[in-house]
Design goal:
The structure is a homodimer of 412-residue chains. By secondary structure, chain A is of the alpha/beta class. Chain A has helices at residues 3-18, 22-38, 40-56, 61-67, 71-86, 125-136, 150-166, 181-189, 204-213, 236-248, 267-280, 289-292, 302-306, 322-332, 345-354, and strands at residues 94-99, 105-112, 115-120, 140-144, 174-176, 197-201, 226-230, 257-263, 284-287, 298-299, 313-319, 337-341, 359-364, 381-383, 391-393, 399-410. Chain A folds into two domains: 3-220 and 388-406, Aldehyde Dehydrogenase, Chain A, domain 1 (3-Layer(aba) Sandwich), CATH 3.40.605.10; 226-368, Aldehyde Dehydrogenase, Chain A, domain 2. The first copy, chain A, is globular and about 65 Å long. Chains A and B meet through strand 2, helix 10, helix 15, strand 13 and strand 16 of A and strand 2, helix 10, helix 15, strand 13 and strand 16 of B.
Chain lengths: 412, 412
């Protein structure tokens, strides 16, 4: 099938999904969950073939781990679909409403986007997660995973499509982009008018290429060069705990801290302590002059302050004051999450006002910027752009709105 | 000055505007209004030079009229700025908030975009309108008008910048893109990272080229191939009044009707009446077989149903039922505004659910899709895209949000 055929079918499916009741959509989600659980063996067999090919091609262990499914991960996908079924339906929510002077009734109502494209990398669980979130919000989804996960994704999509159809909703609500490699991604990125929104999920390179090449509107997600700034008025024990948590609790994710800034007034008291604690936790520091004077700290260059390491590395610098911290963050941040540790109300107020990131955190770890932690129940990604959605995106962020205007003959 | 210098200054100004109080912004808006009113002669002199050049180049009368300023139009710009000053400040509004299980306080707060680019055509009044709306929402604005209005725009911007500076806010809050022609537009469209959002205001050609070439996120505005569907259950007197109003009250604007669909069951009763009334109002009909059988109705081709005439022309067709009207609209509509005239609750419900446009109107004219009519007080344009904002965009649509998360040492 050509891309246009698949996209056209998704459009027709989207028309049906847009007017499907919550009950119908939840029934489909539960059927998808049950079907995935029952077809675990089939999905794992397909995944084993993907893993075999990847191993033959000498794929790195970290990538193999992302690609790997097991009973537990398949069960987690099914549970994720059940969780989405339990969430409220965003479609139909009246966002704003009023009666105009001429008697017209104005309602701004949440409606689905229509057809959502997802471009993602090697994690096959994204296939089920994205399909479930899109369907609940009334959207058809066109999935374009990595070729290394092709057989896993095909197995999952085939199970999900059959389950959706068994409940009476259109199977084409969930579809894979036909073809492989760059061409299939390109078809999706150039499908303006056929696809309403494109969401890339993956590394910085993938996201940059989608943002630059796509004519379809894009929601940019997930690159996080997150900072922790330890203010002169910080409780230093608390600061130590927050820095350690933000850097080491799960270094491979976008809300992990990548850069530490310390106010000069507390540098003597804090820098040696935090370096020792981070080094003990296995972290390599890339520091400015003050930090690099300590044993084992590497000198930081421009590229270190700009880096999203996603590893047990952190850049570190001493700043003369809060305004210098703000300037440093404006220069290097990717606009994901920045934290300040301070007991000063004035410092907290200035930092949260001046730092323009999706999340600005006072006295807590950067690791909380997450749809689950924020209580959204499901998350399609974390937007780092300013248009449409910013920060963790749950179901409401997967919708648009329209105005419904009702009158009894009004003219101008 | 290079584009990068101007954009860099706008960014610095945006940092100041983002934390400016409402009082400071309103003072600047009122100063802008007063300065514009005082400088009316200077602005009109610049406009007269633009008009002279345009006339020498044989510019059409309709375009000359758009370009032309007079005392009344300058006063209207000043009044517009005062109206914006009177509107509530969208910045700082808490959109969502909760306390998480771990005690973290979560607030989703409206914040400015930062730097907004506006690309527009010959109307110099857009210069003041856009500057006022952007400033009130805390954004710096980079204006790129048409070269035919260059001297008018320069005069207006120079007055506005001085007024802003006189109140203590940065003059660079309002700036023109340096240079002329395609290059200056291109600089703006490629300024990803320097400019946060780009809004094209003008004809379909301008908007398409911005959407296709821009790497900066774009809000698409204003193309309206709006439909009026007269249902079998319509009150035909009401339908006639609505069709006439939607087509003729102001045919050159995006919310004017461009296409009429009539249910077959009322075609005999309605088609001759509506044709006679439209023709009497000076409208040329481009109709399907039923319509074209009447005197003076031209036969409609595919291109007529797709056309946004913006003139006293309308395409017209008879449809067998409501579903056929929905299919026709899905095929040809630009997603701006579609109206149904019906007394049937079932038909109204189905039409508003199935038609996916920025505004869906029941028993009223399409001409109501407008920020002023909707009570928004100010409008930067009408979005026909699904991302971020859809329909008339007022001040809240000119903002993004950020999450402010406050704790007392929480870690994961």
């Amino acid at each position: 099938m050509t891309f246009e055929t698949v996209a056209g079918r998704a459009r027709e499916a989207a028309y049906e999904l847009a007017v499907a009741t919550r009950a119908a959509k939840d029934a489909a989600l539960l059927a998808m969950a049950d079907a995935l659980a029952s077809a675990s063996a089939q999905v794992l067999a397909a995944n084993a073939r993907d893993l075999g090919t990847a191993r033959e091609q000498g794929t790195a262990d970290a990538l193999l781990d992302r690609l790997r499914l097991d009973e537990g991960r398949v069960a987690a996908m099914a549970d994720g679909l059940r969780d989405v079924a339990a969430l409220p339906d965003p479609v139909g929510e009246v966002v704003r409403g009023s009666t105009l002077a001429n008697g017209l009734e104005l309602r701004q109502v949440r409606v689905p986007f229509g057809v959502v494209g997802i471009i993602y990398e090697a994690r096959p669980n994204v296939t089920a997660d994205a399909a479930g979130i899109c369907l609940k919000a009334g959207n058809a989804v066109l999935l374009r995973g990595s070729s290394s996960a092709r057989r896993s994704n095909e197995a999952i999509v085939s199970v999900l499509r059959r389950a959706v159809a068994s409940t009476g909703l259109p199977a084409d609500a969930v579809a894979m982009v036909p073809g492989e490699g760059r061409d299939s991604a390109k078809a999706l990125m150039r499908a303006r008018g056929l696809v309403d929104v494109l969401i890339p999920r993956g590394g910085a390179g993938l996201i940059r290429s989608v943002v630059e090449e796509s004519t379809v509107p894009v929601i940019e997600t997930g690159v996080g060069n997150c900072h922790v700034y330890v203010d002169r008025a910080a409780d230093l024990d608390r600061a130590l705990a927050i820095v350690l948590n933000a850097k080491t609790q799960r270094p491979s994710v976008c809300n992990a801290a990548e850069s530490l800034l310390v106010h000069a007034d507390v540098a003597d008291a804090f820098v040696p302590r935090v370096v020792a604690a981070l080094q003990e936790a296995g972290v390599t520091l890339h520091g400015d002059e003050t930090f690099a004077a300590l044993d084992g700290v590497l000198p930081a260059g421009e590229e270190d302050f700009a880096a999203e390491y996603l590893s047990l590395d952190i850049s570190a610098a001493v700043v003369p004051d809060l305004e210098a911290a703000v300037r440093h963050i404006r220069r290097y941040s990717s606009g994901h999450t920045e934290a300040i540790v301070t007991d000063s109300q004035a410092a907290a107020r200035r930092f949260t006002a001046a730092v323009d990131s999706a999340a600005v955190v006072v006295n807590a770890s950067t690791r909380f910027t997450d749809g689950g932690e924020f209580g959204f129940g499901a998350e399609i990604g974390i937007s780092t752009q300013k248009l449409h959605a910013r920060g963790p995106m749950g179901l409401p962020e997967m919708t648009s709105t329209k105005y419904v205007v009702t009158g009894d003959g009004q003219v101008r």
